[in-house]
Amino acid sequence: MNGIHDLGGMDGLGPINPTKDEPRFKDDWERRMFGLFVSCFAGGHYNVDEFRHAIERMGPAHYLETSYYEHWLASLETLLTEKGVITQEELDARKKHIAMEDA
Amino acid sequence: MPTLTPDIVPGLIATGASARLDEDVAPKFSIGDAVEMKNINPVTHTRLPRYVRGKKGIVERDHGVFAFPDTGAHGLGHKAQHVYSVKFSFRELWGEDHAENMYLYIDMFDDYMRPAP
Amino acid sequence: MPHDHPHPHNKPLSDVELRVKALESILTEKELIDPEAIDLIVETYETKIGPRNGARVVAKAWSDPAYKERLLSDTTAAISELGFSGVQGEDMVVVENTEDVHNIVVCTLCSCYPWPTLGLPPVWYKAAPYRAKVVKDPRGVLDEFGVSLPEETEIRVWDSNAELRYLVLPKRPDGTDGMSEEQLAEIVTRDAMIGTDVLAAH
Question: Is the ipTM beyond the 0.90 threshold?
Fold first, then answer.
């Protein structure tokens, strides 16, 4: 698809901001997200092409404004709900529950 | 497939999951061939980026037989085929004002290419 | 007593944190994942897998001509000899920098990167500006990294869009003749193995 992910040759996206070294993960949720991706892949819930395509289907503005591991989160939510492994209602309800416990 | 448990993790990480396929598929192109990338615009998944579509390059290396992502992303099977490293000049990709000693190499599947006219 | 140090319970969980926690909690309940496996995966990539692995490959190639030949001709097997193999390094290609040629690696469509040798990619490698620019203006990109190459140096940019993963074999810097393999590994930077750094003479 001619999506926002197909970035080669685009101009005006701003500075690269190189770093010499950096922590592997900048937040604990990134750690969990990384492990979730590997676990669900190993569990056979999707292949890498489906995983990439689900990232490509993110809204273009959302894609550019969010980090790499948030792309992974969006992809997993899309694929696992599309394949019927979990439902959006389950996710919403659990989110609400966790937020309440956290307050 | 079984749920990933800690005992499986080290072996999984050390082995991975290669997309290379042990299938006897004849290559459609040979090293040194002049090729043109097809101008395709599927609304589905593809690993043929816009910036090389319709551009001419040279086959530099045959990597062997791999699963085709364009079908794999949509439950349409492996469609095993050769992947090649294809070399393009920056002048071909971006215009004559680019230096002549700059090249782009990208891995292209049989289905992305045709012989250069 | 003021409680001013950052503490997770001082601020409510963000939307992203809630979504990740919800996902992990439901999948755990369904027994589709094991949180202890996630702990081990994270620990492995935080402590065992990183650019020091790739630096050892480079140092050995600089020190042992027979190894370098294997590395360039039978790359995946040669890297496995040192114990680096697996996820996102299943099919490796090494490209060699020389006096006349400089190689740079990118993945314009996503963030493909050779995990067993370089670890997980830095943020800039995965972000839009690098992916967009390096295939069209690599010298401009090198400039942002503080690297300048002579005009006569041939530049080769490798877009790793399929399932091959690329590692740059940097040019061995001048003044390193007497160094041991271990010492050489110390001077190899992550960015030199991506191609956005050139190692300084010693």
Answer: yes
